């Protein structure tokens, strides 16, 4: 079973405007609410790929109820801790006609120690040995910056296959527990490598230096330039298809969901990378913050270029 965790979910309120200018009144053309939070996004994207998942998280108040309802509307097994007091955050995404997008993100409710204990206990009661666990997204509302590492350690006896998408000190600490997959961008890889990386050769060398941590897959996101992926002892350079970009919000979550899906379904690494990259490209064509056009993603798969590097 695939399980996702969202410690700081949100409702993403998208504001569509012709253009944004500082120090004047900017008129909103229309608004739309979508689900926010990387873990929840992965669950929804997996559902679009016809794969079930179980969503764990913490939600508060009326906004928290909306988050839970969004997930239920996608027929996802929701295992959230819910509290009446407080309010789950609302983020504001400003999308201009130029397809430029700016995010105004709330910090979210501070997570008390007791509620984290309840969530970890609920995960322990539901997760089976060798389940998949996706740990991704913002956890700045938690007093423990190493909360993902804590979750991994407390559930280590489950021998879970962990897919990790975090950054900074949290990423550095978590890789010591040998997650199955990590998905750093170039800046994040540079941070943990303590080098200002540029170019494929430098990236490959940095990935080789992470061998002692025994991470099976390291997928380095390079934005519009695709990704460079280390799978065991092999390296793959992945080039996405050219698409008309509406916004890049949620593309990384689609890519991660595609990786989880392909591995879960037993597909080979090249096919997995093709599916993940196509889903991400389809998401870039969308003007929403979550999801993608599955038919369009299927069309784009044949336009993904994958080169195995020596």
Automatic annotation (TrEMBL):
Identify the domain of life. Bacteria
- One Pfam family linked to the record: PfkB
Alphabetic keyword roster: ATP-binding, Kinase, Lactose metabolism, Nucleotide-binding, Transferase
Pathways involved? Carbohydrate metabolism; D-tagatose 6-phosphate degradation; D-glyceraldehyde 3-phosphate and glycerone phosphate from D-tagatose 6-phosphate: step 1/2
What enzyme class is recorded for this protein? transferase
The protein's name in its UniProt record: Tagatose-6-phosphate kinase
Q: Which reaction does it catalyse?
A: D-tagatofuranose 6-phosphate + ATP = D-tagatofuranose 1,6-bisphosphate + ADP + H(+)
